[in-house]
Design goal:
heterodimer; A: 167 residues; mainly alpha; Four Helix Bundle (Hemerythrin (Met), subunit A); 6% strand; B: 169 residues; two-stranded antiparallel ribbon; 6 helices; 2 strands; globular
Amino acid sequence: MTPVELYAYHRWANRRLFDVASALGEEACGRDVGAQFSFPALRRMFAHLYGADAVWLARWRGEPTGALPGADIATMAALRTEWDALVAAQQAWVEALRPVDLGREIHYKDTAGNPYHTPLGILLTHVAGHGNHHRSEIATMLTMVSGPPPDTGVVVWHRTVTGQLRQ
Amino acid sequence: MSFTALRTLYDHHWWATRTLLDTAARLGETKAAQSIGHQFSEPSLKRMFFHIFGVDGLWLARWQGVSPTSIPDEPLTLAELGERWVTLEREQKTFLDGLREADVERVINYRLLSGKAYRQPLGLLLHHVPDHGTHHRSEIATMLTMVSGSPPGTGLARFIAIRSGQEQP
């Protein structure tokens, strides 16, 4: 998959689950579902996805970063507004990449201040994989709150966009 | 995604799965087989690992032009599954080593276990298998947290940091 395809899929999968959760209402999305998850509530888990994507975009651009943004966003509606702006910036940045950029070494610090360096192509894949990891938790949380959500796997995305599967 | 990057995805897939498999194995066979809850795709750690194993095998067959109509029998123990996984990993490696750059564009025609037919590029399907593993490893991490405590992180960035000596295992 090219980075453009990978991030088209990433946006589709995030949005698909966000819409399912939003339809349950703000109370359900703010409810504590369990400490076994990385974050106990649906809204907080989505805010983590948003915050991680925002920090990684800044690192790719070589900008200074601090704590992940989004932890204090109070509603799904407010999160959507922030996320839509990020999605547009992330999409534009990914679509402007040239193949040679993927091998470029990105130097960054994690949230604890530890320095790392990794090729951009790997980090692009990492961020999409990070989304996949937490969407899996969201799928389990949604199952507990209201029932299993639709599949957001990459093969389902491709079957959908190529017209082999109707949603 | 470059061919080298695709291979890195599989190195990560094998490492991440083995890391969690070893963590689960240390809990013993009884805990690995215990039902943790039906909110998960599979109710026990052993069943969840077997699902990843089974699906990896299904896709490997489909890439080679065979659409299986059933999955293999579930092993009796997590230890037995771990042994069978060594063979499957070797077969996956052999397949990946035999690919040329142009093969990722090749369209694979396959059928699901239900018989439904699809056609998708090999490159996308090669990406899907480790991605599918990540999805279910996330469930395994939650299950392990419930059973014994948070397992080690198995994200791609951590794998690369360890492999390049920037972080200790």
